[in-house]
Amino acid sequence: MQTTTVHSGGDGYAFVVDDRGLLHQAGFGPAIERHVAALSPELPAGLYPLAHPSWDQEPLRAPALRVTHADGATTTHLRVEHVETVDEPGGSGGAGGEAGSSPGLTIVLVDDGRPLEVRLHFRPEPHGVLRQWVEVVNRQDRPVTLHEVAAAAPLLRDSGAHLTHFGGDWAAEWTPTWEPVTLGTRLLESRGGVRPHLQRSPFFLLAPDGPATEITGTVVAGMLAWGGNVRFGFERSAHPVVRVWCGHNPFAAEYVLDPGEVFTTPEMCWAWSTEGVGPLSRRLHRWARERVVRDGDTVRPIVVNNWEATGFAFDEQRLVDLVDDTSDLGAELFLLDDGWFGDAHPRDDDDAGLGDWTVDPGKLPNGLTPVAERARERGVRFGLWLEPEMVNPGSSCYEHHPDWVVGQPGRPRREERQQLVLDVLQPEVADFVAGVFDRTLEATPGITYVKWDANRAMTDAGSPMLGADRQSNFWVDHARATWDVMATVATRHPDLTLMLCASGGGRVDVGTMRWFHEVWLSDNTDPLDRVRMQWAASHFLPALAVGAHVTRWGGRPVAFGCAVAMSARFGFDLDTRALTPHEREVCRRAVGVYRRVRPLVQHGDLYRLVSPFEGDADRAALAYLAPDRSAAVVFAYQLTARAGAADAGAALDPSHAGGLDALHVDGLDPDRDYAVTEIDLAAGDTDRGVTTGAALAGSGLAWPLTSATTARIWHLRPPT
Ligand code: DGJ
């Protein structure tokens, strides 16, 4: 039996081809070569499950590919035509990639009765990540219709398979669900179009042998690189195996493919761990910093945003004051949010102005230059909010170009937040959208950061650029056209820092993020909720890419809000003039501490220590360690008050922690000494002496918190 494997750092796929040319999956998982070595060589290839079944190859199961051919045939029977290994310089397996990875692989399949070619691509990435995607080539003389085209459809053995997935809605992004994979099919999907990930984060964890912990268990991370609607399907049969389909959501999105054209699916990325989710996340963070977000090796600034402080109501003086406060707090970038634009249709609320990207002369008669200039004087960077893909009917843009928007012929346009989506399938509209950046940056020199927002779901999908018989192509084509615009903007403005936002975390995937430096995870900035949300996202996203701002959401103590936001890309979004003197001191202290621990948070290794979802779910703790283990920062959060807890003051000495309520810090070098500074943002720093990594892991730090919404930070450094 001739087996072909493709793997990243050992983890990946094994395939066999039977004597009829059918492609079978001989394995999908960790240590794939060892798995293959253990296979029985005399077992006929045909006994392994089909690797990428098309409709009718497994008639009773949902297919990975379903096509209506040019002659009306609805079945597809794929045979292997040939297999190519691919050495991609600069990052994939083999020559260019991680040591111990295989070269990339492309398996070319053809239908046995009609000219249709299907190419399965697999490319190893660094840090044990494997990318895969599918191309379908129509070699027929008329269009074919693609009803289902999964980017990936592996089979996993099921010994009590357990799924963790994330979804929600506005202000409830990244809500996790843990569930066993049960008999039947579990579909997870989104339909939000331009902000699809509000409902469904395109990430999951699947543990074939039952729930994994931070340090134990086999688990695979699945990540779809797609800025449009997504779908994951988990079909468990009684055998017991789970077939997992991943790809764009084909709901109402059949794709009509013309002769000679190639349909390319989004990429699905996989990474395995046999030692729980902790090591998996740390590898994914490294991968994301190197291969997903832009400039992942750079330090991210501390941001002050004005949205929660002012909403649409500000003038030049208010902004200048905020710039002054940005500098006074020690923050590094002032971000002016929504509301600065709209000349004929002032953006005084969300009724008007989108599309008219010129400064509102009523609000800012001197333009943005005085604000940018003040920022320059105070040594603060200046950032600006744009929502370039959208238009209000109340705008000059719409008055001049009512035909630029997405819609259905002959039907009224459906507004959401009083706005419509620009149809970037029209070349002049795509030019306009990309040009918004050129014109805005040219009009006000000094803008070095843009928050790119998108505040409505896609409805009424349709474009005059597609024929009457091609309108269902819209969902895929529009997502791709949007990516083209993003690529144009990133290429034209390579030094511009970009934040990806869509009503909060409506656009967070490892494909779209390649043009962005960071994401806005959610508009929900209540630090109590944020502890959980950031925890969930931390399974995949590195902290430097997760914007986290201190606001008044939830009415929590500012010190608690700071401590929570400091565990990601730190910033503020509150009325700095309304801070009490004590709160201002807390914020300034937080900035000082963040500057010291920032290299650890933004480029260190994350250890999730105490889960806010487990036990009494009343606290959480996490640590970021220097890659060489010489230093660390530990964050501890008390979420709700602890009944009957010991007096906090008695438990402050780390050397006394063992018998009390201990916080064990994993990952440190047991033989090293660490100087421990305990930081209470509300009160100040306390030197806790020197202790070893072994003691910090063993007896641990004493848990000093008892009251709700309190926090502690420990900075562990080499003793001087
Ligand atoms: C939604 C974003 O998530 C908010 O942070 C803010 O920028 C508003 N849009 C502005 O309209």
Structure description:
By secondary structure, the protein is an alpha+beta fold. 19% of the residues lie in helices and 30% in strands. The chain has twelve helices and 38 strands. The strands form eight sheets. Strands 5, 6, 7, 8, 11, 12, 14, 15, 19 and 20 form a ten-stranded antiparallel sheet that branches. Helix 5 (369-377) links the parallel strand 22 and strand 23 (381-386). The chain is globular and about 75 Å long. Bound molecules: (2R,3S,4R,5S)-2-(hydroxymethyl)piperidine-3,4,5-triol. The site of (2R,3S,4R,5S)-2-(hydroxymethyl)piperidine-3,4,5-triol (DGJ) has 11 residues, from loops.
Backbone shape: globular
Enumerate the distinct ligands.
(2R,3S,4R,5S)-2-(hydroxymethyl)piperidine-3,4,5-triol
- Please count the helical segments: 12
Percent range for β-strand residues: 25-35%
Average pLDDT number: 95
Please render the helix and strand layout as text.
Elements (H helix, E strand, L loop, with lengths): L2 E6 L2 E7 L5 E7 L2 H6 L27 E4 L9 E9 L17 E8 L4 E9 L4 E10 L5 E6 L5 E3 L4 E6 L7 E6 L3 E6 L10 E8 L11 E7 L4 E7 L4 E8 L6 E3 L4 E3 L2 E7 L3 H16 L10 E3 L1 H4 L5 H14 L3 E4 L32 H9 L3 E6 L3 E2 L4 H5 L19 E2 L5 H17 L3 E6 L21 H19 L4 E4 L17 E3 L6 H11 L8 E5 L7 H8 L3 E4 L8 H23 L1 E6 L8 E7 L6 E7 L23 E2 L9 E8 L3 E9 H5 L3 E2 L7 E8 L3
Parallel strand pairs: 21-22, 21-30, 22-23, 23-26, 26-27, 27-28, 28-29, 29-30
Antiparallel strand pairs: 1-2, 2-3, 4-9, 5-6, 6-7, 7-8, 8-19, 8-20, 9-18, 10-17, 11-12, 11-14, 13-16, 14-15, 15-20, 16-17, 24-25, 31-32, 32-33, 33-38, 34-37, 35-36, 35-38
